[in-house]
Amino acid sequence: MSSAVSSYADLPAIRSALFNNPPDTVPPTDELEILHAELTAYKVKSLELAKKAGDDIRTIEESMRRLKEKEKGKAKAIQKAERERACACNHLHLSRAF
Q1: What are the tens digits of pLDDT across the range 38-82?
Q2: Which among 3, 22, 56, 64 has most CB atoms closer than 10 A?
Q3: Is 16 contained in some domain?
Q4: Rounded distance between C-alpha atoms, residue 16 and residue 21, angstroms
Q5: HEC per residue, the chain
Q6: Residue 19 — φ and ψ, nearest 5°?
Q7: Is residue 39 included in any domain, yes or no?
Q8: Predicted local confidence at residue 91, as pLDDT
């Protein structure tokens, strides 16, 4: 898992004329094979981006979990300091009373 979220490059546009302007008749096999290869490469790149996005989501979730734990720890430390301060003040008031 990476330590930072990375940027995403746009997927390249599909260049095949068959994809953009499909003909009314059956196209030549060569053109179909070229389109198939292009779509397969597009699928592979899409799956790589999906995996990268999943890794980035896990990185973000882990960072958020750590931040929440840190904030929770800070809140507990503040509460403890306030209790100790209140307790110390009570002891001072009690010692002055005697």
Answers
A1: 999 999 999 999 999 999 999 999 999 999 998 888 888 888 888
A2: 56
A3: no
A4: 9
A5: CCCCCCCCCCCCCCCCHHHHCCCCCCCCHHHHHHHHHHHHHHHHHHHHHHHHHHHHHHHHHHHHHHHHHHHHHHHHHHHHHHHHHHHHHHHHHHHHHC
A6: -75, -45
A7: yes
A8: 60
* The pLDDT value given to residue 89: 64
pTM of the model: 0.59
* Residue 1, pLDDT score: 45
Closest CA to 4 of 74, 67, 40, 56: 56
Give the contacts of 35 (CB within 8 A, at least 6 positions apart). Answer: 14, 16, 18, 19
In a domain, 8, yes or no: no
Q: What is the pLDDT of residue 88?
A: 66
Count: domains in the chain:
1
Please state, in angstroms and rounded to a whole number, the distance separating the CA atoms of residues 88 and 94.
10
Residue 17: inside a domain: no
